[in-house]
């Protein structure tokens, strides 16, 4: 299970994983209040990508990433 250190690498890999098979990909967001960490996991049951952060500024990036995935999910295929 690769854990990414930079957000840019994670978001590119996660989007690529989603676009490979949109029906199998899922996103899990977990917040631990005790240590203030946020974990984003994208998986398709074969590959699992993980990004962990404890920085408040990363929340905006994660929100933008989620909205981008939602746009991809509702977009009509061409």
From TrEMBL:
Family under the similarity heading: Belongs to the SRP9 family.
All copies of domain SRP9, residue ranges: 4-73
Protein's cellular compartments: Cytoplasm
Protein role: Component of the signal recognition particle (SRP) complex, a ribonucleoprotein complex that mediates the cotranslational targeting of secretory and membrane proteins to the endoplasmic reticulum (ER). SRP9 together with SRP14 and the Alu portion of the SRP RNA, constitutes the elongation arrest domain of SRP. The complex of SRP9 and SRP14 is required for SRP RNA binding.
UniProt keyword list: Cytoplasm, Ribonucleoprotein, RNA-binding, Signal recognition particle
Primary location group: cytoplasm
Gene name of the encoded protein: LOC101663980
Superkingdom of the organism of origin: Eukaryota
Stated name of the protein: Signal recognition particle 9 kDa protein
């Amino acid at each position: 299970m690769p854990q990414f250190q930079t957000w840019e690498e994670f978001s590119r890999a996660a989007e690529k994983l989603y676009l490979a098979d949109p029906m199998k990909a899922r996103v899990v967001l977990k917040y631990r209040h005790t240590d203030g960490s946020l974990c984003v996991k994208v998986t398709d049951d074969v590959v699992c990508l993980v990004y962990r952060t404890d920085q408040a500024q990363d929340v905006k990036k994660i929100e933008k990433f989620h909205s981008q995935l939602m746009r991809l999910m509702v977009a009509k295929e061409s």
